[in-house]
Specification:
With 1135 residues, the protein is mostly helical. The chain is built from 44 helices and 14 strands. It comes from Bradyrhizobium barranii subsp. barranii.
């Protein structure tokens, strides 16, 4: 037996019409299809991807028809096979003329012929196909079969014109096979039969086309899945025809692998999507594996003149064959070729996951223009020429007068290179609705050669992962209008480089499909932000920069995902510039300072010029502060960077002499106060607000009742109150009283303004200040007064809303005020009233959030309301209800964080909600769930702290997050044993260590308790683990902290902590059998505790008695030698 010239197994592609002799396992299907086609002259072959619809029709059905098996029809057929694409009528016209020409052995149809027939179909009515056949194009006694392959393309390419063409095509075909007025299609004068292949998931879309649902109902054939015996016949049948041998063991193994991959007989399971996908991939993978084994066996036989034998030893596995094949071809390309392969495959697939991924057929090149004028006949080119030149495309309207349209001259040679050859199929594709093309998507003309190399490797004459329609001759490039497509969707799911699963060699791949989905999402986000001028910074900007560098997007690529190529390019470029500007403002401020220097000069020369320069300088400084203020709130600028900017801006403000109207300087000072407040620098915030007050007081003396002056006073006074309140914190009663006095002064000013303008214009300002006063009263413990203030605030905002019922901001403020009132009622133990206010707030915020999903403010307020309700439930010890509310908050905040991952305004509340949920779950005893929340909070706090190492507040919050995580990890460890316990304890120690080494500064007193507690907890863990040396080190670290602070005259709390550390160290020394050293430390602890007991009436005496008992027990104990490996380590060593 000799080697076959062509592979008997097609691989991923469908069987071709001339391969019917290789098509096995479907005899019963063909019989049923012939029967149904005969009844109605219409057959819709349905099935999911991979069931072999096209192969079944083109080999099985076509062969049966030509054998004369269709009842009532001859064996003479004109078979017209086409895909509708974006121009269904044009493609039908081309296919009809090409099929007729093939039978008559005439030249290929011209563009004029195709266009003329297409216009007949579109303009002259539903019977034009019958008329065309009567005109002699269909031979006497012959039948016409029209196959519309991949019928779903009618829906994929649709726009307004496409829907009309789709309806026209179906009307034409249905009327042709069964003209109106006839009792049955068999009475038709012209025997026309219609078959379509359609993916079953598009069946519902067919209802959109008039007449089609009825036809499908009458003539549907649902392609069944091949059974095991049929698959065996599909393996052995082609081998017998081609003279091959197949080892029985290989057949058994292959069938078993197919059964494991997608069982033939299986009950419905829970993962139906996966089962359906694997069923669709089963046959293509089988054919591909057999094709690859034939390739290897054939090469071996040709070289050694052996018989071709498909052996089990050559089999690499059903799935691994495809992955290995793809990797071998990919590895054969150089680095630039591999990069281009990624671009090509990403261009012809779409979807965000393997589950929803589908093929995306794409035209190869740019439109080849058809002649504008041929003789005295004009051709309407259609389609816009504008905008294409700006994207580097050829205009679609060009003149090629008097040039040949034939493919060859009469002497059989190719036409002269000077001629422009335009074939009819190019003209058809030009009239389609598809606008993008592979060449432009992948980089334009400079990338053409690279794209061709990829198609050579992966295309129809290579490994057949990609197809081109029409298929080019071997060694030739595809025509410009050829459609490039994935050979089969199984490739998307099974080639791991494309799908992103673990590959044959064990390497984890992210997958080109996911890369394309992420790029699309990024681009769409950039388009939206560019249109809104919401400039990007931080990680988002870095992602955009890296995307542009790696993916090198093109205008054609961008059109798939929102376009706006030039706009986005400028936007990213300007964002980069602005980021650099923020971190290098010295030059910009230098220009402003030079302008201010000119103020002094021109002040002596020309007053008007000096005034103009003043306004220029102050306005510029205000604009820059506005920018830096947004960055501070979002967390996009470091503390040091913001401080540098504020320092320079402050210098500018100080150099400006106070003008006649200081309002711009007052507003500038208040902006300083806002930014310093957002940075947590409340002393500087207070100083800036006082500077504003100092500037406005002279105006007040002159115009005590002027509305603008009062507004400047009000805005400065409440900022002073804010700075005092936040600087002292909620535990500093003196600061609270001082801030209350300042807020009350601001309230008086707001009431005066409201009296001067009694139209309710200041209701919102009154709501604002009453809420501030209510908050201070709450922290002073004046709950009744606080509730009354919040109720008054609610009355004012309701008044404002009554005058402006559609004002969304007022609705949001009303809901926020209800939240504040609810918390106060909860503090008063009025649970019913609190819940009522919370519910109204949530209902209002839910409505606002649903109104505009892009508006983050109501989303953030809604999340905050859910978290506050969670706090309310947690205070009532209704912990399960609290967790539900926290989870609602987390869901909203997570979505906001995903949309804008670098925005600190969303990261901080999300971390807080995770911490609150963790606390509630911890109290419920659900420690594993609690740990997950605390771990997420820790990650978010790390993200914030890493962006600004100079921010004490961020570092302190991260330290607390570390400790919370470590505390719960320690508790979880108690429920485990073995390796699990050690892993959790190790994570806890690491977190405590991070809190000490990376976060807490012993020079910040408020953080020292965290340092001390972390050392103690590390020591406790080391004691549990039996690591006495490290326990000693940890306790010694705690002792050092406590001793330093206690010696500086700190409170008795630190004296007590010092005694605790001595006690802990002594316990270690006892375990190490250093009894005398242990007794000394117990006595030190006893002296400290005794001193504390003498000064208070607390529990210190109980502790003193415990220490005495320990000392006495050790004194009566026999002397023991310490273990050799348990020597006392030096204090301060790392643990």
């Amino acid at each position: 037996m000799s080697a076959a010239d062509k592979p008997p197994y097609p691989g991923l592609r469908p069987f071709e019409r001339n391969e019917s002799h290789l098509f096995f396992g479907r005899d019963h299907c063909v019989d049923e299809m012939v029967k149904r086609l005969a009844e109605r002259r219409f057959l819709a072959v349905l099935g999911s991807s991979g069931t072999g619809k096209s192969s079944l029709v083109k080999t099985g059905l076509f062969s049966a028809l030509e054998m004369g098996l269709l009842p009532g029809a001859s064996s003479h057929w004109l078979i017209v096979d086409f895909k509708p694409g974006g121009n269904p009528l044009g493609n039908l016209a081309w296919a009809l003329l090409e099929a007729e020409g093939a039978i008559r052995r005439t030249s290929a149809p011209s563009a004029l012929e195709v266009e003329a027939l297409q216009k007949r179909f579109k303009q002259d009515g539903r019977r034009e196909l019958i008329k065309w056949c009567r005109e002699g194009h269909l031979a006497e006694g012959a039948n016409l079969l029209v196959l519309v392959d991949q019928f779903e393309e009618l829906f994929r390419y649709q726009n307004a014109e496409g829907r009309e063409d789709a309806q026209a095509l179906i009307t034409l075909l249905l009327e042709s096979r069964w003209p109106r007025g006839l009792a049955s299609p068999q009475r038709a004068e012209v025997p026309i039969y219609v078959t379509i292949t359609l993916r079953s998931e598009y069946l519902g879309a067919c209802a959109l086309i008039w007449g089609l649902p009825e036809a499908i109902n009458e003539g549907t054939y649902l392609t069944p899945r091949m059974k095991r015996l049929e698959c065996e016949e599909a393996i052995l049948g082609p081998a017998r025809v081609c003279g091959l041998d197949v080892e029985p063991q290989l057949v058994i193994r292959l069938l078993n692998d197919m059964a494991d991959f997608a069982p033939w007989d299986v009950e419905l399971g829970k993962d139906q999507l996966t089962r359906l996908a694997r069923s669709a991939d089963q046959l293509p993978l089988m054919q591909h594996a057999l094709n690859q084994m034939w390739q290897r066996a054939s090469a071996r036989a040709k070289g050694n003149e052996e018989e071709i034998l498909l052996k089990l030893a050559d089999y690499r596995g059903l799935e691994d064959e495809l992955d290995d094949h793809g990797e071998r071809i990919f590895a054969s390309l150089d680095s630039s070729g591999q990069a281009m392969a990624e671009r090509v495959f990403r261009a012809v697939t779409q979807g965000t996951t393997v589950a929803n991924a589908i093929r995306r057929p794409t035209r190869y090149g740019r439109d080849v223009p058809a002649p504008q004028q041929l003789g005295d006949r004009q051709i309407d080119q259609g389609g816009p020429a504008e905008n294409e030149q700006s994207q580097g495309r050829l205009s679609s309207v060009q003149s090629y007068e008097g040039q040949s349209l034939g493919r060859q001259s009469q002497n059989g040679k190719l036409c002269d290179d000077q001629s422009q050859i335009v074939d009819a199929q190019s003209h058809v594709a030009q009239l389609s609705h598809s606008e993008d093309n592979l060449i432009d998507i992948c980089g334009g003309e400079p990338s053409r050669n690279a794209v061709e190399r990829v198609l050579t490797a992966f295309g129809p004459h290579g490994c057949q992962f990609l197809t081109a329609n029409p298929k080019p001759a071997d060694g030739q490039s595809p025509s410009e209008n050829a459609v490039i497509d994935i050979a089969h969707e199984s490739l998307i799911r099974q080639w791991k480089r494309l799908s992103g699963q673990t590959g044959l060699r064990g390497k984890q791949l992210r997958g080109w499909l996911v890369e394309e989905g992420d790029a699309a999402s990024l681009w769409q986000g950039l388009v939206q932000r560019a249109k809104k001028n919401e400039w990007i910074t931080g990680r988002t900007l870095e992602e955009a920069r890296q995307f542009c560098k790696k993916d090198q997007p093109t205008p054609a690529w961008s059109q798939r995902y929102g376009g706006e190529f030039d706009l986005v390019n400028r936007f990213v470029r300007d964002s980069i510039w602005r980021e650099r500007g923020i971190y290098g403002l010295g030059g910009m401020f230098l220009a402003i300072l030079l302008g201010l220097a000119a103020v002094g000069y021109y002040g002596k020369q020309q007053h008007n010029v000096a005034t103009q320069l003043f306004h220029l300088a102050v306005t510029s400084a205000q604009e820059l502060l506005d920018i830096i203020g947004v960055q501070v709130v979002r967390g996009d600028v470091t503390t040091s960077g913001a401080e540098e900017t504020l320092k320079v801006a402050s210098t500018i403000a100080q150099k400006v002499a106070t003008p006649e109207n200081p309002a711009p300087l007052i507003e500038l000072a208040n902006t300083f106060s806002d930014i310093y407040g957002d940075m947590g620098k409340y002393g500087e915030a207070l100083a800036s607000a006082k500077r504003a007050m100092d500037l406005v007081e002279p105006l007040r003396a002159v115009k005590p009742d002027d509305k603008e002056v009062l507004e400047l006073l009000y805005n400065s006074k409440w900022r002073m109150a804010d700075a005092i309140y936040f600087r002292g914190g909620v535990t500093d009663r003196a600061a609270l009283e001082q801030s209350l006095a300042a807020y009350t002064e601001a309230q008086t000013l707001a009431l005066r303004l409201a009296a001067l303008v009694p139209d309710g214009a200041h209701d919102r300002a009154l709501m604002f200040i009453y809420r501030k006063i209510g908050t201070v009263h709450h922290h002073l413990g004046h709950f009744d007064t606080a509730a009354a203030e919040f109720q008054t605030a609610l009355t004012y905002i309701q008044g404002a809303l009554g005058k402006n019922p559609d004002n969304q901001d007022f609705k949001r403020e009303q809901a926020v005020t209800r939240r504040a009132l609810a918390k106060e009622l909860a503090a008063k133990k009025d649970s019913v009233g609190a819940m009522e206010q919370f519910k109204m707030a949530v209902d209002a915020l839910t409505a606002l959030a649903g109104r505009d999903l892009s508006n983050a403010v109501p989303q953030s307020n809604l999340a905050a309301a859910h978290r506050e309700i969670g706090d309310f439930y947690q205070a009532l010890n209704e912990l399960d209800a609290a967790v539900v509310e926290y989870e609602k908050a987390i869901k909203i905040q997570t979505a906001m964080n995903v949309r804008d991952p670098t925005n600190a305004s969303w990261i901080v509340p999300l971390a807080t909600s995770h911490e609150a949920a963790g606390t509630a779950l911890r109290r419920l005893g659900k420690l594993t769930d609690a740990l997950a929340h605390f771990e997420r909070a820790r990650i978010l706090r790390e993200q914030l702290a890493d962006k600004d190492r100079a921010s004490h507040s961020r570092q302190s919050n991260l330290g607390r997050a570390y400790i919370q995580f470590a505390d719960v990890a320690t508790e979880v460890a108690k429920t485990l044993d073995g390796a699990g316990r050690d892993e959790r304890l190790g994570a806890a120690v690491e977190a405590y260590r991070s809190a000490i080494d990376d976060i807490f500064d012993v020079e910040i007193p408020r953080n020292n308790d965290g340092v001390f507690d972390s050392y103690i907890k590390i020591g406790d863990i080391r004691m549990q683990q039996g690591d006495l040396a490290k326990a000693y080190d940890a306790y010694s670290g705690a002792s050092e902290i406590a001793r330093t602070i206690a010696q500086n005259g700190e409170s008795a709390v630190w004296q007590e902590r010092l005694a605790d550390s001595y006690f802990k160290i002594a316990d270690v020394l006892v375990a190490q059998k250093h009894l005398s050293d242990a007794i000394d430390l117990y006595r030190k602890a006893l002296r400290v505790v005794t001193t504390l007991a003498a000064k208070s009436q607390g529990t210190e005496w109980i502790r003193a008695e415990e220490l005495n008992r320990k000392i006495q027990a050790l004194l009566t104990k026999p002397a023991q030698s310490p273990a050799d490996d348990k020597a006392v380590p030096s204090v301060g060593a790392k643990n």
